[in-house]
Amino acid sequence: MTESKSNLSEEYLAIGKEIGRGGFGIVHLSTHKTRTVAIKVFYIGEEEAKNRPDIQREIAILMRLKDRHIIQFYGKTSHEGSLALIMEMADGGSLSGAIKKKRLPTWTEKTRVAQEIACGLAYIHGEGIIHRDLKSANVLLTKDMEVKLCDFGLAIVKTTSATKTADTVFAGTVAWMAPEIHAFRPKYSTKSDTYALGMVMWEMAADCTQPFMSMVKYNESPQKIAHHVIAGGREEIPAGTPSDYRQWIERFWDQEPSKRPEASEMVKTSDSGDQHPTDDSLHLDNAELQLLLSKAKADDVEAQMAVATMYMKGDGVRKDYSEAFSWYQQAAMQRNPEAQFQLGEMCFNGHGTTKSDIEATSWYLKAAEQNHAEAQYELARMYDAGHGVDQDRSQAVSWYRMAANNGNAEAQFVLGNRHKDGPYVDQDDEKALAWYLKAAEQGHSGAVLNIGWMYANGRGVEKSDVEAYSWYLKAAELGNSTAQHNLGIMYENGSGVKQSLSEAELWYRLAAENGYTDAQLRLGALFLDDQVDKRTDEESFFWYSYAAKAGDAVGQFVVGSMYERGQGVEKSDYNALIWYHKAAKQNHLKAQHNIGVFYEHGRGVEQNYTQAAKWYRKAAQQAYPGSQYNLGGFYEHGRGVEQSYAEAASWHLKAAEQDMMEAQCNIGVLYLNGQGVQQNSVEAASWFHKSAAQGFAEAQFNLGLIYHTGQGVHQSDDEAVSWFRKAAAQGYAKGQYHLGLMYYAGQGVQQSDDEVVSWFRKAAVQGLADAQCNLGVMYNAGRGVEQNHAMAYSWLRKAAEQGPAIAQYNLAMMYRDGQGVDQSYVDAAAWYRKAAEQNFAAAQFSLGYLYITGQGVEQNDTEALLLYRKAAEQGHDGAQFNLGLMYEDGRGVERTKIDALLWYRKAADQGHTGAQVKVEQLSHS
């Protein structure tokens, strides 16, 4: 059974090295069956991708497009649960990379590339598709420098000549956007794509991949750039640009979309040959070509080189690498170093000959020995990597040095790095700086960046933030994203420049828009912390999402937390969990911990203590204190693991040793109670002190208790009050309640009913049942507050409903006596019963009395006897006396003087006067 075009089996897929990453996925060099392909693996899962209209739209568009200038789509598959698109491999990198590396040295090459981009645009426009994000970064090149348009994630199918987005939010990248796209309701058309083509042509003309850098230099925001474009402002076309090339840019940049040419017009002009000559093309007619060929055949080296170059570039002749290789060989035989170098390049890339690192190295060596700087640099790289030759770092350094001395900027940069870090050469900051300066003079942005770093860190020069800023600015103007990010840091911190968060934002944004993850994170943090005026959580979420989708674990975690809080995005525990899982996969400990929390509480997933324990353990084993603490709690209560105080103590101790105050308090409790560890009140007090010193209210409360009782510390009510007060000041209800008790008893403080009521009330408002009960008692008695039975009833009812037996008992008495509520023996009996069921002796006695008298319940001596016995066995003297009466009178039980006397004596021993009289009477009767 064959695979469908859209769904391919993962069985034949071999994922190779990462070759790029962007906002939505990672691209890998791979093979599918026998074909070399590019695999774009999305960050999101396959199921989630089905619900993403942008991804489904990109797939649908790619499946439609079949043209040599469009990256070809072979199908989709699944890789490790994520959606993966299998596409044509463009092994020449991006056009932006080619511009930065100056791989388009001639106007002929630049014109050809522009024409091929126009061909691709004309094709997709003919298919009814608008790209919406054309820029050099989204133009790929083959090893033969053929154009392939890519990244159709923002593309749309046009329905009218000018398509409005449904949500009025523009798509694309600011500097490449046409004026009409910057409007409140952007209108997309084929003409917005051709405007962007003009911007790409400017990139090639200026050898710069960052338009409007002059505005950036003066700290203008993207919004200012938009206003500049809307007002008719454009980039300056460099002097020396050929007139035909300039005219195309100017026409594509027309303010009025209707006046801009379609891409197809440029294609037709190219096909008809109606082009103004560019300044550096050969433009040979047939006679001139024949003359050149005859000279080449006569061993004229210059002619051989010219012919080889023509075939290599397809300039005036059909592009033919085999012919180019043949002519370079003939020139190389005459020891032409450039020909030898070109042969090395062709052997290395497999152009016109079988790919061979050994042959490439051989030709590089021949050219290098003739002092060809580029060949020396490439030869150094071959020795560095062990390609075509045994790896030899010393030889590599030697050839780098020769190339650097001959002015090769890349070699100078490499030597700077080697001397800075010390691998394979002596570490020497001054030499590193010297080489960086040489490379910087040639415009090498990496060297310029590193000089800034040397000044920032005082390496090889006196530390100077001002100098660092100056060099970073130069590198940033060359389009270096790291430098742009570093400038953002300097403005944010006020290092070398006056602090300005708005300018920090500007530089971070430039780097972020170029895909620099750290800058995306910093932008997210600026907006999240509300450090930048008039910014929103939505903007913070946007930038963190970019970093997250690029695979950054911190970004993934923050996006998860923003989904969890509903900050900048609609609250969703489900989506939060997805992003936490992505971060956890990269060993982000807080993400692993949070997954445990979600499983523990059933958030975004079905509650599962076993899974929660598993995730807590992952993070705990890597010393994450929060997870160690939670895992300890799981062992303490037997959640998701077998209950074990020893394990609980072990994990709490690990977290406590990392100064986690909650864990310090818990290990103190375990030492105090001898659970999982040998009982040790002194050790308990020590841990309580450590936790309390960090301000943990529960530990402060526990210290109050042990000072009050003298466990592990010298007994001191003064100390107890002090610690209760600290906990109470933090709003800890138990601390407030116990401080009230100390005022009630006059222990460690002067007795004060007013203070008692005040502290009981604070705790009662927080729902502490004991405080509510005692506050009710104070209202009932009129102590520290004006007597108010209704308020007493209200507080006792709140407490009783939480379950404390004493509150239920007191509430029953209020129903019995009709205080603060209508008298009701039925309700009194109901509340006595609740307390009695908790084995509260006074309630058992009172309920027994109601059964004797038949008040609120049906009269029942047997039930009364049972309740009296339960209370009597707990030492309740009234119950013991009444039990004696029932045995003496034979009520609910057989009459027996012996049993009567037994219970009377128990009550009498507790001082019950009625029982003492009965004992005297029965003893003499």
From TrEMBL:
Name of the protein: Protein kinase domain-containing protein
Annotated spans, Disordered: 254-281
PANTHER family: ERAD-ASSOCIATED E3 UBIQUITIN-PROTEIN LIGASE COMPONENT HRD3, SEL-1-LIKE PROTEIN
Kinase is among the record's keywords: yes
Family membership noted in the UniProt record: Belongs to the sel-1 family.
Pfam families, A to Z: PK_Tyr_Ser-Thr, Sel1
Positions with a binding annotation for ATP: K40
